[in-house]
Amino acid sequence: MEGRYLHPRQTAAGVWLFDPEELAQVPQRASKEEAEPEAARAASKRRQRVREGHLVAGIFQMFEAGESLPQIVIATRQQPERVRHLYREWVTSLNEGERQTRERERREQRGF
């Protein structure tokens, strides 16, 4: 339901707050989604992508603000390896990232 019917907002402290009016409608919507399991699974995948996008955007903002690796790991509860990977993405320009992707795809096609 989150991202589809519920639209929480995150406070500066990282706490997610839900709109009480949206929460009041959850029982009706939940019963409808139970009747349509395939639609519910698709909606769940969409919500996961939205949450992931919010997390990555927040981490990019922390990079921009000069936060350290330990500060980001503690604040986001992500593994250091994940934060390092996102840092590499953050420092790579869009053009350079696209070039690297094309090179990797060519190598994979040739079997290297």
Describe the structure.
A two-stranded antiparallel sheet has the order 1-2. The mean pLDDT is 85. The longest helix has 28 residues, at 37-64. Helix 3 packs across helix 5 (80-91). The radius of gyration is 19 Å and the shape is flat. With 112 residues, the chain is mainly alpha-helical. A hairpin with a 5-residue loop joins strand 1 and strand 2 (16-17). It has six helices and two strands.
Q: Topology of this structure?
A:
Elements: E1 9-10, E2 16-17, H1 20-24, H2 26-35, H3 37-64, H4 69-76, H5 80-91, H6 94-110
Antiparallel strand pairs: 1-2
Helix pairs in contact: 3-5
What is this structure, in a nutshell?
By secondary structure, the chain is mainly α.
**For the CA atoms, what is the radius of gyration?**
19 Å
In one word, what is the shape? flat
Number of helices: 6
Strand content: under 5%
Average pLDDT confidence is 85
List segments where confidence is low: pLDDT < 50 over at least 5 consecutive residues. Answer: none
Strand order of the largest sheet: 1-2
Distance from first to last alpha carbon: 43 Å
Sheet of most strands? 2 strands, antiparallel
Instruction: Please count the beta strands (DSSP E, at least 2 residues each).
Output: 2
Q: From the helix content, strand content and strand pairing, which structural class follows?
A: mainly alpha
Keywords:
two-stranded antiparallel sheet, 112 residues, 2 strands, mainly alpha, single chain
